Amino acid sequence: MKQNLIRLTSAVLAGSLCMGLAACGEPGTGSGGDAKEGKKSVKVGLICLHDENSTYDLNFLNGLNEAKKALGLSDDQVIIKKNIPESNECKEAAVDLADRGCDIIFADSFGHEPYLLEAAEAYPDVQFCHATGTLAHTEKRDNFHDAFASIYEGRYLAGIAAGLKLNEMIDDGKIKPEEAVMGYVGAYTYAEVISGYTSFYLGAKSVCPSTTMKVQFTGSWYDETAEKEAATKLISENCVLISQHADSMGAPTACENGRVPNISYNGSTKDACPNTFIVSSRIDWMPYYVYAIQCVQNGEQIKTDWVGDLSTGSVRLTEVNEQAAAAGTQAAIDEAAAKLKSGELHVFDTSAFTVEGKMLTSYEADVDTDAEYKPDTEVIKDGYFHESEYRSAPYFDIKIDGIEQLNTMF
Amino acid sequence: MAQQTHKTKEPLFHIAKRDAIVWWKAWGIRIAAILLALVVSGLVSFLLTGENPLRIYVTMLDGAFGTKRRIWGMLQNLAMLLCVSVAVTPAFKMRFWNIGAEGQVLVGGLASAACMILLGDKLPNALLLLVILAASVLAGALWALIPAVFRAKWMTNETLFTLMMNYIAIQLVSFFVYKWSVPKGSGQVGVINRATHAGWMPVIGKYDYLLNILIVAAITLFMYIYLKYSKHGYEIAVVGESENTARYIGIPVKKVIIRTMLISGAICGLAGMLLVSGTDHTISRDTAAGRGFTAIMVSWMAKFNPVFMVLTAFLIAFLEKGATEVSTAFGLNESFSDIITGIIIFFIIGCEFFIQYTVKFREKEAAK
Q1: Using the 8-state DSSP alphabet, how is residue B190 labeled?
Q2: Assembly ipTM
Q3: Which of residues 216-275 of B touch A (CB under 8 A)?
Q4: Which CA distances in Å does B38 have to A301, A326, A360, B45?
Q5: Does A108 map to a domain?
Q6: Mean pLDDT by 10-residue block, N- to C-terminus, for chain B (368 residues)?
Q7: Are residues B66 and A20, on separate chains, in Cβ contact within 8 Å?
Q8: Could you say which of A80, A110, A194 has the minimum Cβ distance to residue B328?
Q9: Average pLDDT, stretch A141-164?
Q10: Cross-chain residue pair A410–B179, CB shorter than 8 Å
Q11: Radius of gyration in angstroms for the set of CA atoms belonging to chain B, rounded to a whole number
Q12: Of B280, B290, B186, B334, nearest in space to A54 by CA
């Protein structure tokens, strides 16, 4: 009887293998779209950590969809793989996309990078573009690229909206100037987050000089409960305005419940938080997708490190919610944005902040990623900290005066 | 069978336990269940998405077998799932509900990562691999030993205990991921020793996963023989049937419980090494990726027989790959593929009921 069972199971196995091999005969997807306007017909792959239920991934998915429309790509020219973890699975997904004839492959999550790099080594003729990564400039591969946006400028502008709101509270007599304490929910004690909250703080400080800020880290990019708890804790410590760098609705919800104004991230939370949402900054990935895909179409080299900014349309602010924002917010944001674009204003101007009471004149940042975190590049020149110039991902990791870290999450 | 012949209120049908069933009937029921599952999931997918069900099945096959690489990828997934399933099996056979495999795999992986990070530049690679092997096996065994000792000595509830040990393991991994993260503060360890490949398991020829697959095949074979032909295997079966009987015939129950859990945990730890040192070359909270829990189903569906487990693990690995491909190809949400997988597994587990029991309908009046 046992014998028979084994025979049967192996027959089933063999049978399904045969079916599978039969299925390999047809590649399924046709040979790309029709070549438009004489340009090379291009096939694009995208690897996402989660799916559209995560605001972070949704932002990338929307970006690619818009780029697809703008470039007139057909459905079978774009393959999207969702819910790909930051492990060997990412390499599997990337090489599978290459096997299917993708000419350019994007990945959206920081932890995908080393696996995408392995795929780039296996497929030298395919372009691999990674968002938020740090390795491209030291790997120096022709087909591996990092990209980011100067989102610190967006956060600075959102910070101005926060500062104006604080001023309004002070003018209304709701708080004293020294009580203008903001709270910030961060994911990790990581340069990207530190750069983000510092620029937010500096934006607020540029209009409300008495403001200070407390930062609570959650140790996760997406943890609704932890983010909500962190925001609630900050509110209980008398923070009168909250912002966050994490991807769930945790902090905005806590703010709406506690009627505390909120500066959001990744997109508008106005629908869920009509009374407290002021404005949100986000990265628009569409310009990068268009740029990189066009490079492939035209046979041009993609930049090793690409940084989108306000003028490329990569850094965006949502509409200001008039119901919660202070008067004149939009005008103040527009004015500062124009100055940032023209180069008249720099977010990390060393005259705008101090470190342990002193102005910073020199700083070596850890730009080249290594396990010892060795500082390697002088980044202060011409009176400001040159963020995102030596690589696309942020490397501002200085603790400045006025910001207190309540905990750390390395 | 027809013992109930009285006229009053006979239900339309009733359920009775089958004595034994010939193998071809059992497999007939199983195959019928799979066919039925395909029909139902085809119907559901047509109603929900309007796609042709046949195209969906072809896409599933394509996802698992479409290219040589996909076949290898699926075999790797199969091997890793099988490894954890084989690991939990001796404990299950002993009626020791070890649902802590997830944590045991994680601590094994954590031990591997620790050796790779801390000793990567200090030991020659062959020696380092031996140290990694010892460390991960010991770590997994230790994680299983703790609940086993408590159960053997103080009769604590092993289900709760092993479950809780998972969370401790996850938090432990989180802690070290913070500590070792590269770049600083990113919450990611990144690929460990990417330049030197120190502590990476060797690759046979061009086949990235072949070594993993061979190791798991050997473990599976070992477990089959161990459970079926060794004295230990017999003791495990007796303890599982009845601890009192075991005690009566002189089997040292406590010793058997602890020894079996040590083996269970050790193989889980080894699975952690295969994942960290063999394929991922990193450690994160998601390294075990739920295999510790899926393994319970795989082991159960195979009735704790390591050889059948190849088949059930294949089924799950195939469904996972296939369903993911369906959601990619048709642009559907991942939840859709979970629905399809759920339907198929529901039928497969459900059909075991009809193998154990039979449904008897009320005999028609005309028959009398």
Answers
A1: -
A2: 0.85
A3: none
A4: 48, 59, 67, 10
A5: no
A6: 58 82 86 90 85 87 93 96 97 94 98 96 95 98 97 94 96 93 87 93 92 97 96 95 94 95 98 96 93 94 94 93 87 81 88 85 62
A7: yes
A8: A80
A9: 97
A10: yes
A11: 24
A12: B334
Q: How far apart are CA B251 and CA B238, in angstroms?
A: 9
A369 touches chain B (CB under 8 A): yes
Residue A104 lies in a domain: no
Q: Is B41 on the interface with A (CB under 8 A)?
A: no
A275 touches chain B (CB under 8 A): no
Number of Cβ pairs < 8 A linking chain A and chain B: 136
Contact B186 A188 (CB under 8 A): yes
The SS3 of residue A121 is helix
pTM of the model: 0.85
The size of chain A, in residues, is 410
Whether A272 is in a domain gets the answer: yes
* Closest residue by Cα to residue B140 from B170, B173, B104, B111: B104
Q: Using a CB-CB distance cutoff of 8 angstroms, which residues of chain A are in contact with residue B289?
A: 85, 87
What's the number of domains chain A is made of?
Answer: 1
Residue A48 lies in a domain: no
A54-78: b (≥16 Cβ within 10 Å) or e = bbbbbbbbbbbbbbbeebebeeebb
At A285-317, the pLDDT tens digits run: 999 999 999 999 999 999 999 999 999 999 999
Question: A51: burial class by Cβ within 10 Å (0-12, 13-18, 19+)?
Answer: middle
What does the angle CA A388 – CA A62 – CA A264 come to, to the nearest 5 degrees? 60
Domain enclosing residue A284, as ranges: 151-289+291-405
Q: Write out residues 301-320 of B within 8 Å (CB-CB) of A.
A: 307-308, 310-311, 314, 318
Residues 6+ apart with CB under 8 A from A104: A42, A43, A44, A45, A126, A127, A128, A129, A292, A293, A296
Amino acid identity, residue A327?
A: A
Residue B206 near chain A (CB below 8 Å): no
CATH label of the domain that carries residue A172:
3.40.50.2300
d(Cα A66, Cα A44) in Å, to the nearest integer? 13
